[in-house]
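Key result, reporting period 2: structure in, sequence out.
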């Protein structure tokens, strides 16, 4: 019975690999417009951060 129990290891690995392959190969729904909107918002916020006001520089000798 113990040798048959060792056959469960490759059987389980094969079953897991086949389930993973099935899941990876099926088409996943994509929402292209949501990704484009996200990219535009990120680009706009990075543009605002680059053009925004800069804080005043701290004194070189530290706080007094």
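The corresponding designed sequence is given below.
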């Amino acid at each position: 019975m113990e040798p048959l129990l060792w056959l469960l290891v490759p059987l389980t690995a094969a079953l897991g690999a086949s389930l993973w392959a099935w899941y990876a190969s099926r088409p996943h729904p994509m929402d292209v417009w949501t990704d484009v909107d996200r990219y535009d918002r990120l680009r706009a916020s990075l543009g605002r951060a680059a053009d925004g006001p800069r804080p005043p520089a701290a004194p070189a000798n530290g706080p007094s």
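Residues 32 and 38 are 10 Å apart (CA to CA). The two ends are 82 Å apart (CA to CA). This case is discussed further under Risks and Mitigation.
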